[in-house]
Write a structure and sequence with these properties.
CATH class of the largest domain: Alpha Beta
CATH topology of the largest domain: Hsp33 domain
InterPro entries: Heat_shock_Hsp33, Heat_shock_Hsp33_C, Heat_shock_Hsp33_N, Hsp33_helix_hairpin_bin_dom_sf
Helix content: 25-40%
Keywords: Chaperone, Cytoplasm, Disulfide bond, Redox-active center, Zinc
Low-confidence stretches: none
Largest sheet: 6 strands, antiparallel
Mean pLDDT: 92
Number of helices: 11
Protein name: Hsp33 family molecular chaperone HslO
CATH architecture of the largest domain: 3-Layer(bab) Sandwich
Pfam family, one: HSP33
Organism: Reyranella aquatilis
Bound molecules: zinc ion
Structural class: alpha+beta
Amino acid sequence: MSADDWDRVLPFQLDALGVRGRLVRLGPTLDEVIERHGYPLAVARPLAESMVLCATLATSLKYDGIFTLQISGDGPIRLLVTDLTSDGALRGYAQFDSWKLAVALGSGNEDAPDGYVPKLFGQGRLTFTVDQGQHTERYQGVVPLEGATLADCAHTYFRQSEQLPTGIKITARRSDGPDGHHWHASALMVQQMPEFDAGRLDVDPEQREDDWRKAVILMASATEKEMLDPALPGTTLLHRLFHQEQPRVFERRAFAARCRCSRDRIDRVLRSIRREELDDLRDKTGRVAVKCEFCSTEYAYDDADLDKVYEPAA
Ligand SMILES: [Zn+2]
């Protein structure tokens, strides 16, 4: 596997069609995030797909801060959260009900079925948030979970948010090799460019429509196998799909699994709670243990540590 082809976004442009797009492929980052949680396959695959969707949408925006994708519903997976900072730190977690999950999958089924959204998430919504720090406005987009796949739900979002016509294809799989599990996820997105940006003010609307349709058909012709093939470089895949359109491929950006939690942050959270209330959280040894949902790191506090946290500021 060519290591510098994964955990990256590859933006491209099809000048002849007035379309831009991106190919995002995640590999080792997914292994790190997913294996740390030890989720069942039927939770891990939706998480992998939502992480690649998050990375695709986030890198289509100019922002300086945190892009968050959240799916919540009344199904076996109650909540799935993934976020990406503008410097490439990606993380994610899920909350689910094991019993409901087993019932929804049926006996003998371990993996999420294709078109799993209604079955695993139920009625719910998909939320995108861009947080650029204290003194800026938060942007938020919310759409109901409509459709069988995450790509369908993303299409609902593109339509409702009145973006330029956008198409996306998402896939994720776990492969089992002699050295354990490996995850790969991939997303391909195409988006019509504003006429002015594309330098196509003289193109008639019908031609523009045909060009757009052609881009969508070419994108959709990508097979799951080639999107996830560790041995197939992203640039080769793009040239294979769009060779007649001579895609221009731009500089790639990398992602890595990295959590933003720290002992300082947990200290601050604890300080916002009255110390007496922590008694319910004590483990057998009397320590208060707080686990980061994103990365499963555990922060433990004994009484001496808590004295320091709650010490009045000098
Ligand atoms: Zn963490």
